[in-house]
Design goal:
By secondary structure, the protein is α+β, with helices and mostly antiparallel strands. Helices cover about 25% and strands about 30% of the residues. It has five helices and ten strands. The strands form two sheets. Strands 1, 2, 3, 4, 5, 6, 7 and 8 form an eight-stranded mixed β-sheet that branches. It has a two-stranded antiparallel ribbon with strand order 9-10. About 5% of the residues have low confidence.
């Protein structure tokens, strides 16, 4: 170590960026903040910030999540029936983004994280953000996207990667339950799949698949009429993390 010279290597900063997804009014939405400072002042961006010298990546992501949304991160598969944590959110590392010119201030490497949570309230801006809002993913990534409104840095690519991660993982894992409250109906779970995938699903076929997949759902013993009509059976997330058979995504 006596011959090691740290100054021989160029310094760079590390940030965490959060792709925070929720389902609001039956639509998959992403959390955006408007930057109040340069660079990209006035642009919409993903929430996030610099990693502090005394914290790890997971700690930084959890801190930024709490500062931006008030949510407490928790590990997959999510809530258990014995210890419901409605204030929690699923948090996982998404990917690393390090193009030399991605940030005009200096060399910055971002470790992006994916956050999934049930129907979240209207956000409040914090830190260097001047405002915050939920934006439908279909408007940001789909045909309805306004090409004149670009996200700061490379956040458009990070968002697209996060959405595709969520869409693919609910095929073979029970991750879709992270969008649901601790107790939910099969119809509410189906609307999560429809919102994330952007397709309509046959109710009867979906009910047969999810209730027939071992460990996916557990009956809670209760019913609800919050959807209107006849009482619907309530379920909680089961212990399975891998679905066998998987819920294959239909063609859009």
């Amino acid at each position: 170590m006596s011959r090691y010279d740290p100054s021989a290597f160029p310094p760079f900063a590390v940030t965490v960026d959060l792709v925070v997804l929720t389902v609001r009014d039956h639509e998959l939405c992403a959390l955006l903040v408007k930057r109040g400072e340069a660079p990209f002042q006035g642009y919409w961006a993903l929430p996030g910030g610099f990693v502090r010298p005394d914290e790890g990546l997971g700690e930084a992501a959890s801190r930024e999540l709490a500062e931006e949304t008030g949510l407490r991160a928790q590990s997959f598969p999510g809530r258990g029936a014995a210890e419901p944590t409605p204030a929690g959110a699923h948090l996982e590392q998404l990917g690393t983004y390090g193009h030399p010119q991605r940030d005009p201030r200096m060399r910055v490497v971002s470790v992006a994280h994916l956050v999934l949570a049930p129907d979240l309230p209207s956000p409040r801006a914090g830190g260097d953000a001047s405002s915050a809002r939920w934006a439908p993913v279909r408007e940001l990534l789909g045909e309805e996207r306004n090409d004149g409104v670009l996200l700061a840095f490379d956040h458009g690519q990070i968002l697209a990667d996060g959405v595709e991660r969520a869409r693919s993982k609910i095929e073979y894992s029970s991750l879709a339950t992270a969008f649901c409250p601790p107790e939910f109906t099969v119809g509410e779970l189906r609307r999560v799949y429809e919102a994330v995938w952007g397709v309509a699903l046959d109710p009867r076929n979906f009910h047969r698949k999810v209730t027939g997949t071992p460990g996916f759902l557990l009956p809670s013993g209760g019913t609800t009429t919050r959807q209107g009509g006849r009482p619907a059976q309530l379920f909680t997330a089961g212990g399975a993390t891998v679905l066998n058979p998987p819920m294959l995504r239909p063609d859009a």
